[in-house]
Fold this sequence. Notes:
Blueprint: E1 2-8, E2 19-24, E3 36-38, E4 44-46, H1 55-67, E5 71-75, H2 93-106, E6 111-114, E7 149-154, E8 164-168, E9 195-198, H3 218-224, H4 236-242, H5 257-264, E10 267-272, E11 281-284, E12 287-291, E13 314-321, E14 324-331, E15 334-335, E16 341-343
Helix pairs in contact: 1-2
Amino acid sequence: MEDLGHVPLPNNASAGGGVRVLQLTDVHRFPAGCRYWDCPKGRRVEMEPGYSTSGDVAILEAALSNAAVHFVVLTGDILDGRPFGALGDRSAWRPALEQLLAPIQRAGLPWTFVPGNHDDDESPWSREDLLKIYDLPGCASKGAMSFNHTMTIGFGAEADEDALRLWFFDSGGNSPDPEIRFEDLAARLPPKTPGLAFFHIPLPEYGGLTPLHGTQGLFDSALRAGMVPRPWCWVPSLVRALGFHRAVGCSKLNSGIFDAFVRSGQIKATFCGHDHACDAIFQRAGIFLCYGRVTSTTPPSDWEGDAPLPFAPGARVVAFEQGRLATWVETLAGEEPKTRFLLD
């Protein structure tokens, strides 16, 4: 686990004095100009009129304009390797990602990336190839040898009382039961700086909880898409009565990282993606467990049209000011009403 030190932030006075982080997740970027996708369900999905390869950029530009953020985190499935497979080009990820990064770079904001399960799924590039993302302009993780690393961010030249420590983890690739490559960090976590952890696949501890805020829509979406196995698909009311609809798309392997977070007492909140129909916020053992908001405007966002999203695509903002954390969702239309929540 690498410590990359401190990243000074651009002091944007319009942000009200606090540190603001923007989380983009599950963008599922397709090759530019892609007109259709032959999806794994054995059918061709046309991009027009319901999907777009550039709608995600418009959402990002709106969020950057409205929320006045200082740092951007891309939490996996930013690329979707599957439609790139036929291209046979190991560097094809670069122009697709650069189009998304352009507004961030124009704004002069530092950013970083952690992979999801689809960034290298059936792609012509390897997962290791994606470490080259850290060489792109503006990346705060430049020089990192692994997707697992940490840094502090703040307005000072060094970490101070207004700084945040950010932890980034690779939650595994696309396999039936991905190995979550987390390590026990209890002894490594800093004693003072509040910590936020970012990864793609939710931890098992996200499961079985009632949301404090937001939508937990994985079960309903899976039911619409025909993804719920028998006999549960026949008795959805029973599933809900038993609380099984509180399931999350986590690995069956528990890495123990959540227990490490609890022991450390330093992680205030975690942020993931993966379950597109979820933007819920939970709490367990004093730690807020948060989903981002899916940013994608391509077919995987809604299971190729079989399960329309319960909300508009967008991005999550996390704000730290005067020792308090708050979060809300930004969409193309601006801050989404009733999404602001205090993580306190």
